[in-house]
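tl;dr need the bound structure. longer version: we got a ligand (NAP) that a collaborator sent over and nobodys looked at where it sits. i said id run it. heres the input, straight from their email, havent touched it
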Amino acid sequence: MPTLLCYGSYGFVGDLIAREAIDRDVDLLLAGRDGDQLAEQVDELGCPGRRFDLEDSETVADALEDVDCVLNCAGPFSNTAEPLVEGCLESGTDYVDITGEIPVIESIYDRDEEAKDADVTLLPAAGFSTVPLDCLAAHLADRLPEATDLALGVDSFRPPSIGTVRTVIEGADTGGAIRRDGRLERVPTAWRTREIDFGRGTRPAVTMPMGDVSTAHYTTGIPNVEVYALMPEPARTALKLHRYLAPVLGLTPVQWTLKQLAGLVREGPAEWSRERGSAYIWGEARTGDDDERVVSRLRTPDAYVVTVNAAVETAERVLDGEADSAFQTPAGAFGADFVLELEGVEGFFDESTPDETSPINPLLR
Ligand SMILES: NC(=O)c1ccc[n+]([C@@H]2O[C@H](COP(=O)([O-])OP(=O)(O)OC[C@H]3O[C@@H](n4cnc5c(N)ncnc54)[C@H](OP(=O)(O)O)[C@@H]3O)[C@@H](O)[C@H]2O)c1
């Protein structure tokens, strides 16, 4: 049976993913750099473990020699994706991760040719960021093949896990990003505000540098992409303030202090909260002259629930050989309807008129 190695398996999301993979009878190897935490998890889950750090690419490649696919859950991925991808290319192992970090996705995209030569699939961003928005982007591109502009948005405001907080801090000095004419463009944080009806009435959302800015373009070929997140007023103001703080946030002592403070955040959303959570996803494709415009929506379970299901489902499909050997996006590999196969996801709810506040909005149930 093909083997999946889950790296960072004893982290908050890694542990949820490992449990889901075990429930699905995946042949799983738990892995990470800390022997104590790993040994504790190995005992509890009754699954084999493999301890190795990511300091040296030869060690990583050796550790992956008998592994068919890595599922990297160790974030911030700016520190872990590069050595694991390198090890995968050397050992001929497929690679999946749950990053939402644009620079990480871009750096993996740059290794497309190497992946083809090594007969390896590199599929980053198989979590909440980016599976639902990536699939919605593909669906919108199918509806309007001439589209030149894509706007995507997510309404899923919830407290993050400590790992997500650390990841946000790690990228705190880089500001926002959009894609224009096919190229990534840096913009200030919360650069543009837009009133969007995610399915529960119109509310203000701001541009955010989510991984979908990268993936939606690679999936659809649409040259202009903006990604929005619903943001209540205090958070919008804080994000705008961030524009002035960004240069300071990149300084090492400030980063260190923020990470210590992040350690005070509780581990992650509890089970009851994940079970009750939900997210509303919106997308719009337009032609440049604004002659044509289509809107579609999705409703999903909680972002952490989607991340766990999407990551394990993706890894299983990669193990089954369903994704070509190359850089891949989730919808590029498995099609727009991939997201509809995840438990609890509803959609696509298509709208073709400009009236986004239609009272018969299917999400208002
Ligand atoms: N795509 C999505 O929608 C989505 C959803 C949820 C979370 N995430 C991302 O997933 C990541 C993990 O989140 P989490 O809540 O599980 O965080 P967490 O509880 O802090 O776990 C992080 C894991 O990564 C390991 N790790 C971190 N840096 C490492 C390094 N340099 N070398 C080796 N191992 C390293 C940690 O091991 P040690 O204890 O040994 O440091 C730990 O096992 C975050 O980046 C978060 O943003 C993405």
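gonna send this back to them w/ a short note. The domain at 3-127+305-335 is CATH 3.40.50.720 (Rossmann fold).
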